[in-house]
Each structure stands twice: as structure tokens, then as C-alpha cells.
Amino acid sequence: MTPLVDVVVAARAPWSGIVPAGGTITITDLGGNQAVDCLFYDAQDHAERYCAHTTMAAQRNIFLTVGSVLRSSEGRPLLEIVDDTCGRHDTIGGACSQESNTLRYGHHTKHQHACVENFLFEGARWGLGKRDLVSNINWFMNVPVEPDGTMGIVDGISSPGLRVACRAERDVLVLISNCPQINNPCNGFDPTPIGVVVTGA
Amino acid sequence: MVSGRTDQPPGTTATTYGARDHARSQADTSVLGMPTLPASSAGDLPSGVDAGAMLWDEVLDAGEYAAHVLPRGSVLRLTDVDGDACAHVALHHADLPSERLSLADTTKVQWQMYPSRGSLLLSDRGRALAAVTADTSGRHDTICSAPNRADHDAKYGDGRVEGPCPNARDRLIVALAKFGLGPRDLPPTISFFKGVRVDPDGALQLDDAPAPAATLVELRFELDTIVSVANAPHVLDTRDQFTCTPLRLTAWRSVPTRPDDPLRHATPETHRAYLNTDDWLLGRAT
Between chains, do B108 and A151 touch, taking CB under 8 Å as contact? Predict the structure, then answer.
């Protein structure tokens, strides 16, 4: 089947597009250890969007992998993970922003590029704004939680060529920021390109 | 339809005069879930709180919600009166409501999933909306957020917001609507008094054992904040009956976190969160 989309998203760049109901989006970590920040919206109603918390509560686990149903704020399935050669993905760590970077690293990082900048600029093309940004998925990102509650982004478990694929249960708008973060280990301190392939039903 | 909560004989509300008398006769009715107005007349105030400093006193019975603007420097005490409440809380910066509580930044920036005394509740703009200044519970949740209609339909058979088992998400959507905010403005919410813990394999465990009566959490606000609270069961509550005991909300005027407060320097991250908060305040009339 000819893909609807088959692109390489450059390091630090955003991407957005529609995955039709029954179609699949496959994201490939071309260079290894590349976090891919991702949000989903019902293509017909952007107010219904991916909810990390509903998703985690429904599966009673914080990690995403094959079989995870990515649920909306209303609890309805938006997509399901159908293939995953990495093993697990994060949805508690959120997206880096200029503002959170100042807290995590210091004010010298204020003008470094960040995922929220990508989300805001790319989302604006679809009429999405600041209030449409919620807790996102971080494909290929490794965020363990220790018994005492300490959590953090640590060295990745991904490597070149690993991929994750999701089948859409309805038409969904996908918003991606190929994470430009250079201060934490999520990208091996070196952002690299990713592959995005969308196929129809 | 005439309320069942009346001892008026039928027929007396057939005229405007009778209806007016009937309505007015309800004055001084007391129920469990209601506000005390003025707040300064509330009884059983927290130790050291002057009645004249009171800003808000309200009890939420099971399934009820309330919202209030609380100024910078005020303190909100949430009291789990009988030990089985669950407070679902949304926070919005009153001056800039697109800025709101971010659970992801709150946990990531502070490197900690389980909030406790000394934790900041951070906005998605890198500022402190509030600090947790007291906590006799130690069991809270930054992972599951509020249950929705579908959760309650499945668990209780009826999750409608106007039904007997209202879901916290829809209650909070209504709360925000009264400030001109829509469903897109509702961020993932924090819940107090029900603990969720993460196993090493990522599995979630709910600690919902009953708490001692009058278990409490206090939040000190660092910015003027719209505080929206629903008292409703936790999404991982496995009981098939809608179960939730009263939550009391008590707020009073106090002083903002002082420049020499150790909290400001507790960690590099909290220090910078206060720097960012102070920076916003430079541009505001004080």
C-alpha cells in the first residue's frame, strides 16, 4: 500500500498531519535515543484530545507499549499501539518548554529551542493554541519512577531503527515535536531525525 | 415543582405571594454541603486564624464542587472531614487563565511524583501557583487525574453530571464555565487524599484506606489563582457504590512566601520557580 505520508522529520522540527480511522502511523527512531513528543486530537473535534492520565488510569500502568489504548479526555479510544520494537514509552514527563527549562537547568537555557515552541507553532496551523496543550506522549523516552517517588528522564533504551506504530480508531490529528532538548539524556544530548509513515485503512 | 424539603401544606404556592413566602421560609435551612457566608462567621477556624482574615468556608458533600478566586498570599486548607474524601483540584492563574497547573512540569521539575509538604504546584509557564505548606495525609495523586463520564457510567451505571454519581471531570468543566473557560481549559487535575504509587514495572497501586478524621492539606498561593475543587471518588476506587465523605474548604488571607522563607531555597528548582514568579509580579500593580 502506498503510504499517505512518508517523511523524515529533521532534528528539532515539528510535524503534523491526519491519520484516518483504521490507518496507522509508524514513527522510527532513525538515529537512536531520540525522544518524540506527540499529541493526538480527534480530527473532527479538537476539544477531545489525548489524555495521558485517562490512558494511564485505564491500563493501570504508566508505561506505553503494544496493547496500550491511547484514550481521550472523555475516555474514548483514539489509537492503539500495535507495534513496538523499543519496549516502552513515557507519558508522565511532559514536553520541554522555555519556561520549564529555566527551572530544570537555569535561565541560560531560556532561548534554547523546546517542544512547546514546536507545538504552539505547528498547532497554530490547525487552530490549536496554548490551552490545547496537555500532557503528551514521549515516544522512545525513558522515565522511571523510584520507590520513593523520585522520577526523572534518564538514558534512553532506544537505538537506531527502532519503531512504534499506532492504529487510529477514528480520524486523528497528530502533532509531533521531534524533541530539540540538548540538556537531558532523552536525546543523547544530540537531537536526530525521525521517520514518520502514515498508511490508510 | 416544590422542593420536598418543606413543611408547607400543598397549595400555598399557587399565588406569587405564597410562592414568595414559601421560598423565604427556607432561610436558615442547613445542609451538609454548603458555604458559610460571610466566611468570617465560620466556626471551628484553624488555630491562629482571625475571623476577619477568612476568605472562604464551604463543605462539599459527595459529588459536589466549588470554585473561588484566591489571592496571592492566601492559604487554603482542604480537610478530609471523615477520612474518605477525594479532592480533585484544578488551578488557573487568575490574571492569565491560559496559564494553569501542569502536573508534568510539577513532577518533572521537582524530580518527584508524590507531592508533600514543601512541594510546589507549578504552572505550565514555569511559575509557582501554590506551595504545599501542610500535609497530614501524604497520599495524593499526580498520575490519574479526574474520572470522566465514561468511567462513572461503567462503574456506577450513571455518570451524568446531573445524576446521583457525578464525575469529577464534568463537575470541573461546569466550574470553569462560570469563569468563561471551556473544556479545553481544564488541565489534568491533582487529587488529594487518595494515594497512587508506581511499582517498578510501572503498575499503579491505589492507597485508599480510610484516613483519620480531619486529615488536611494546606496550599499557600503565590499568584492570584482560580481554585476549582470537586469532591468525588478517585478513578481507581474499586467500590461499586459511589462513596465519598465530606470535604471542607477553608481559606484565609495570610502573607506570601517571604524572601527569607527556606522554601524559596529548598532546591535549585524551587529557587528559580520563585524567581520566575517574582518576575511576573514586577509587572503587576501591588
Answer: yes
